[in-house]
Amino acid sequence: MLSARSRKACTIILSLCAIGYRSSQVSRALLYFIADIAKNHQVRKQYTIQLGENELVLKELELLNENSNVFKLIGPVLVKQDLAEANANVRKRIEYISAELKRLDGTLQDLEDKQNSKKESVSC
Amino acid sequence: MGDGVKGTVTPLGSLFSPEEARKAAQRVEGAVVQRSSELRRLQGFVSENSALISLVRSLPDELSHEIMVPFGGVAFFPGRLIHTNEFLVLLGDGYYAERTAKQTMDILHRRGKAMEAQVEALKATMLDLEAEVKFFNSTAEEAIEGIVEIREEYVEEPEKNSLSSDTVSDSLHSCKTENLQKLDEDEDEEYARIMARIEELERMEELENGNTSEDNTQENEDTVVRDGDGGSKAGDEDEDEDIEAGHSFSTLDHKYEVIEPKQKLKDPLQKASDQKVLSSFISRQTGNISKQQLKEEAFSNSRMQFPVEAHSFSNKELSVGKEKTASSPFDAQSSVSKIEDSPHETTGQTLNIVSRGHKVCPFS
Predict the structure, then answer these.
(1) Please, what is the Cα angle at B78 between B76 and B79, to 5 degrees?
(2) Helix (H, G, I), strand (E, B) or coil at B39
(3) How far is CA B96 from CA A57, B91, B157, B192, in A?
(4) pLDDT tens across B98-110, in order?
(5) Nearest residue of chain A to residue B113 (CA atoms)
(6) Which of B10, B63, B201, B346 would disulfide-bridge B323, Cβ 3.0–4.6 Å?
């Protein structure tokens, strides 16, 4: 799924080729940036999906009665879990994923800035 | 016609080359295809979910079901399904909960709703992308057709005393002028009607407001004059314009500013109160663009009241900038529409006109 940013990255490559830009070193660096950004996007997408899933789980757990059985699938084993414990675990996971997403956002921003500055230095 | 107006003609093809537009359209189409496959996947999930709901609903009907139990990858053996009301439902992320059939159905319902919301969002993004594709394709076609973008410096023509719209120059609008001349008179009459109506309303309001209106007019006159100065500086060329008339009214306050036409003030003024007559005389003599906050103003005399410029305004401050419309035909419709719609300010020094193929007027 091409997001707007990765699409932009591709257009940058295309435009570079279009103007017949030859210098291999700098173009390699730019490609490196583009690859990094794409990877970042991929990881971000994963995390976003997981975050959504965990939020659904939390909602369902809240709707459970106190005496309901909750199990967790760890490998091939279904392990009985305490409802309160499961709630806490899911909440912690949600926090962790949100923090990771923020970190990735920061990294992405850095990468984009570096890429832009590199592009400008190239075009000058 | 051109009168030494400098202009640039740029074919749309040079700005947006057709190949690039096509490439962009293709890229977006690729995204659309991806989204549509995703959409199909989600719709599959939705249908699976509803099938599961019906199964879960039917299972507790019997104490036990006779079934063929899958054994390994390729074998089955006959068996019985017991505990038909107990379900281990996957909540997500490896968590299971033991629930009854009814509770399971509730969970599945909620899941179905969430998925449908996702489907709707995806459909919306797909619509946007498709609109983008259409736009790119149409741009490419236009570029191929050779449609040109014409930009001209807008030079304010010195207004002559004759009030006919024929004297309004500007070659670009001449064609439209000719077309719209016939509409002129109709528009003017309509305009007069509107102004007469406004005048009535103003009178009624004034009857209610009484003294307060006077104070308001005083204040607004001050602000207006200040704005007038700013406005007149904005458009230097028309210091000596003979006819300036325009009108604007703010929807918020139901006040309006009227720029007095310098000529033929007699008719409107006869209807105005004394104070306002005086102020309007003063405005005429100053020879600048002045605006007056008049509670009642007879803005009649449609024919000659359409000058080259109308005044636009910003709703909040009632400040008026200058906006030049090239010819009177625009004034009635455009100024009225502008007043009724969201107000905006234009500096109006250049006009960008993208001429469509069949409406391009040849420069003569």
Answers:
(1) 115
(2) helix
(3) 10, 6, 80, 76
(4) 999 999 999 999 9
(5) A56
(6) B346
Element (H, E) at B29: helix B18-58
* CB pair distance less than 8 Å for A61 and B97: yes
Query: What is the residue-averaged pLDDT of chain A?
Result: 82
pLDDT of A15 above 90? no
**Between helices B18-58 and B101-145, what is the axis angle to 10°?**
170
Compute and round to an integer the Cα radius of gyration of chain A: 22
Q: What is the distance between the alpha carbons of residues B161 and B159, in angstroms, rounded to a whole number?
A: 7
Tell me the chain A residues in contact with residue B35 when contact means C-beta distances shorter than 8 Å: 1
Tell me the pLDDT band of A120, cut-offs 50, 70 and 90: confident
The chain B residues in contact with chain A (CB within 8 A) are: 23, 27, 30-31, 34-35, 38, 88, 91-99, 107, 110-111, 114
Give the DSSP H/E element, type plus range, for residue B88.
Answer: strand B86-92
Report the alpha-carbon distance of residue B364 to residue B353 in Å, rounded.
17
Task: Give me the mean pLDDT over the B24-37 stretch.
Answer: 87
Contact: B96, A72; criterion CB under 8 Å = yes
**How much is the ipTM here?**
0.73
Instruction: Please count the other Cβ atoms lying within 10 Å of the Cβ belonging to residue B51.
Output: 10
Question: What are the phi and psi torsion angles at A122 (to 5°)?
Answer: -70, -45
Res. A34 pLDDT band, cuts 50 70 90: confident
Distances B343 to B31, B226, B351 between C-alpha atoms, Å:
38, 19, 18
Beta-ladder partners of B96: A71, B90
Of the candidates B348, B345, B320, which has an alpha carbon nearest to the alpha carbon of residue B226? Answer: B320
Residues with Cβ < 8 Å from B303, sequence gap 6 or more?
B163, B185, B188
Taking alpha carbons only, the member of B285, B332, B341, B278 closest to residue B310 is B332
Tokens of B18: 């057709």
Q: Are B195 and B247 in contact (CB under 8 A)?
A: yes
Token pair listed for A45 = 């997408």
- Identify the H or E element spanning B151: strand B148-153
B293 with B214: CB under 8 angstroms?
no
- Give contacts of B107 with chain A, Cβ < 8 Å: 60
- B97 CB neighbours in chain A (<8 A) are 60-61, 64, 68-71
Q: How many CB atoms lie within 10 A of CB A5?
A: 16
